[in-house]
Write a structure and sequence with these properties.
The chain has 16 helices and 16 strands. The strands form three sheets. Strands 1-5-6-11-10-9-7-8 form an eight-stranded mixed beta sheet, sandwiched between helices. Strands 13-12-14-15-16 form a five-stranded mixed beta sheet, with helices on both faces. The longest helix is centred in the last third of the chain and has 28 residues, at 432-459. Mean pLDDT is 92; it is low at 1-19. Helix 6 (157-173) packs parallel to helix 10. It has helices at residues 13-21, 34-54, 67-73, 79-84, 103-112, 157-173, 188-204, 211-219, 233-238, 248-263, 310-313, 328-337, 357-372, 386-395, 406-411, 432-459; strands at 57-58, 64-66, 86-89, 95-98, 122-131, 143-152, 178-184, 268-270, 282-290, 302-306, 321-327, 350-354, 377-379, 400-404, 413-418, 424-428. The chain is an alpha+beta fold. Bound molecules: histidyl-adenosine monophosphate. Histidyl-adenosine monophosphate is lined by residues 101-103, 132, 134, 139-141, 144, 146, 148, 150, 300-305, 307, 323-327, 329-330. The site of histidyl-adenosine monophosphate has 26 residues, from strand 6, strand 10, strand 11 and helix 12.
């Protein structure tokens, strides 16, 4: 309850300010406003279209899961589990976590719904919020969105290549140039052997390691390879490379993936230090980076790889799998930086303008009749002046405006204004829909002819 001033019934001003300021956004989260929604829907449409052709089906897992799913699935010693999970105990005493990533949840769903019985691989795509308690900075939020592809039930290197290719294709369709950094971290056995060699190497450099790296040395020396600390880079560059410790099966698998990517013309670079920060990975790992070195985008747009042991780790039968996830906010930030605008999926052809109360009423009906008849139509029925309505029509780039005023109401007519040349005609209200359709069809035909003409010209 706000405090009352002694002399009046008004709440004390100070209290009001305090109340307002406490209703701000939580640190590290964002409202997705209409401007960004346009990008979100654009990307969503591309993802939906592509996954449809490649046979990936949509899946949505809950935003809360049992905490243990991520502790086991993502790994106890990963950054996500050690320090980034939004975990809590609910009223019933269950230990729950707000989903920090999608893969473990998809693997859980695969097991829980007995999908091993389906023809394999089972391929999914998803789109949703993820939550990680990270230190907020550019490109790093506490609540963000990812889209992801997961294919469970096949260890064919073609699946790895397909997932990488699809991710690349989405970027290309959005107008972004990206490079895919790839590596293989082999099987568990290869890694165990490699870890020993790496441990010995980093021990010889112990005095040059940072405190963080020294800690990683004890827990998992592979993680040092992922370090962004400038001082460590020369040491990391000189480190033994995992490729030399891959067994023949892992090596062959990786070479096939690379071969398929070459066939598909995907720009890949081999990055021997790429290990990824989640424990479920084995064999192929990859990250998607913008090819533009001048951009402010300092982190990967997406990442993924194989996780052949995850389903078994979560209690299912052995099931090889691979996937990727891409961060939508990072993608949108890059698109904006590159001044790439989402293509409008709704471009109205007609604008309904009105003048006066009676005309407004009629316009509401006319608008709905046009919309129901399949015409792409826009309005600003809440605006009063004709000038401001026509300005809006102009901004929307419509072909025609239909204007209803007092006179038209009395005559049973509508004014049709060609927005390109400003020519106005009076038409019968009853004939307005067929007339509009006829004109729009005619324009479509002219445009098609023009495109055809251009194509013939370029063929010659
Ligand atoms: P991840 O590398 O942790 O992988 O995340 C994938 C992408 O999500 C990142 O490249 C980034 O674009 C975005 N992202 C991650 N954290 C943040 C954050 N704090 N703020 C903004 N964006 C962020 C995974 O999540 C794996 N599940 C990928 C995968 C799928 N592996 C196999 N299947």
């Amino acid at each position: 309850m706000p405090k009352k001033n002694n002399n009046s019934k008004e709440p004390v001003k100070e209290e009001k300010v305090k109340t307002n300021s406490s209703f701000q956004l939580v640190r590290g989260v964002k409202d997705v406003l209409p401007e960004d929604q346009a990008y979100f829907f654009w990307i969503f449409d591309q993802v939906r279209e592509l996954t449809r052709s490649y046979g990936y089906e949509p899946i949505e897992t809950p935003i809360i899961e049992k905490t243990n799913l991520f502790v086991r699935g993502v790994g106890k010693q990963t950054d996500i589990v050690e320090k980034e999970m939004f975990s809590f105990v609910d009223q019933g005493g269950d230990h729950l976590t707000l989903r920090p990533e999608g893969t473990a949840a998809v693997a859980r769903a695969y097991i829980e719904h007995g999908m091993l019985a389906l023809p394999q691989p089972v391929k999914f795509w998803y789109w949703g919020k993820m939550l990680r308690h990270e230190r907020p900075q550019a490109g790093r939020l506490r609540e963000f969105h990812q889209f992801g592809f997961e294919a469970l039930g096949s260890d064919d290197p073609m699946i790895d290549a397909q997932i990488i290719f699809m991710t690349y294709k989405i970027m290309q369709q959005l107008g972004l140039e990206v490079t895919i950094a790839v590596n293989s971290i082999g099987s568990e056995e290869c890694r165990a052997q490699y870890k020993k060699v790496l441990l010995d190497y980093f021990r010889t450099k112990r005095s040059e390691l940072s405190d963080v790296a020294k800690k990683q040395l004890i827990k998992n020396p592979l993680r040092i390879l992922d370090s962004k600390e400038d001082d460590l880079l020369p040491i990391i560059e000189q480190a033994p490379q995992i490729f030399d410790y891959l067994n023949s099966a892992s090596r062959e698998h990786f070479l096939k993936v690379m071969d398929y990517l070459d066939e598909l013309d995907v720009p890949v670079i081999l990055k021997p230090t790429l290990v990824r920060g989640l424990d479920y990975y084995n064999r192929t790992v990859f990250e998607v980076w913008t090819s533009d070195e001048k951009t402010s985008q300092q982190s990967a747009l997406g990442g993924g790889g194989r996780y052949d042991g995850l389903v078994e780790l979560l209690g299912g039968r052995p099931t090889p799998a691979a996937g990727v996830a891409v961060g939508i906010e990072r993608l949108v930030a890059l698109l904006k930086e590159k001044e790439i605008k989402p293509t409008l999926d709704y471009q109205p052809d007609i604008f309904v303008a009105q003048l006066g109360e009676e005309a407004k009423r009629k316009s509401m009906l006319l608008f709905e009749q046009l919309r129901s008849a399949g015409v792409k139509v826009a309005e600003s029925l809440s605006k009063e002046g004709l000038k401001s309505q026509l300005e809006k029509a102009d901004k929307l780039n419509v072909k025609y405006a239909l204007i209803l005023g007092q006179k038209e109401i009395l005559d049973g007519t509508v004014m049709l204004r060609d927005m390109e040349n400003g020519i106005q005609e009076v038409i019968d209200q009853k004939k307005v829909i067929p007339e509009i359709k006829k004109r729009l069809d005619k324009q479509l035909k002219i445009q098609a002819e023009l495109v055809k003409g251009e194509e013939i010209k370029s063929d010659i």
